[in-house]
Specification:
Elements (H helix, E strand, L loop, with lengths): L5 H11 L6 E4 L6 H10 L4 E6 L2 H14 L5 E5 L5 H4 L7 E8 L13 H14 L5 E6 L4 H15 L6 E6 L10 E7 L3
Parallel strand pairs: 1-2, 1-4, 2-3, 4-5
Antiparallel strand pairs: 5-7, 6-7
Length: 191
Amino acid sequence: MGLMRVLPFAKQLLHDHLEVGHVAIDMTAGNGHDTLFLANAVGATGHVYAFDIQTEAVASTRARIQEAGVDERVTVIHDSHDTVHTVVANETRPITAAVFNLGYLPGSDKSVTTQGNTTIAALSQLLEVMAIGGVIVIVIYHGHESGKVERDDVLRYVESLDQKQAGVLRYGFINQINHPPFIVAIEKRSK
């Protein structure tokens, strides 16, 4: 068996932390691929919240989940992921997985990107609302200028987390050209 590539590894981490009836959050809905994956993982009794600031991404995600027939278990939010605490404030089911794909929406305006300040605010809020044992998977695309800045901001933040509160893992290939994406996974250990 070869080394697992970054995106399959991200999906494996998410899958391992989700059960039917749980809640998952797609912090950067994009074209809806992760939203659909999460919706299938939580089943008919679970729920997924999916955030994106771009109208095009929201429309694409809604179309994908409607086509798959899982739209009743997904709430798509046309807003920044740094509003997550307010959105899930009344959620009673365990929130056990969240995913970010940092950077820009593939095939769209590359000047519209995720930003370190809102990503860090969202991470901080997630650590408050996630169930103990839950995982946050961050796929960091850093092959563009704002991606490098956000990468550095996010790494500084996660490196500062108390290891009693969260375990932080970094996974990615280091000998590939063109700034390959890598994963930072955070597992919540305590409140």
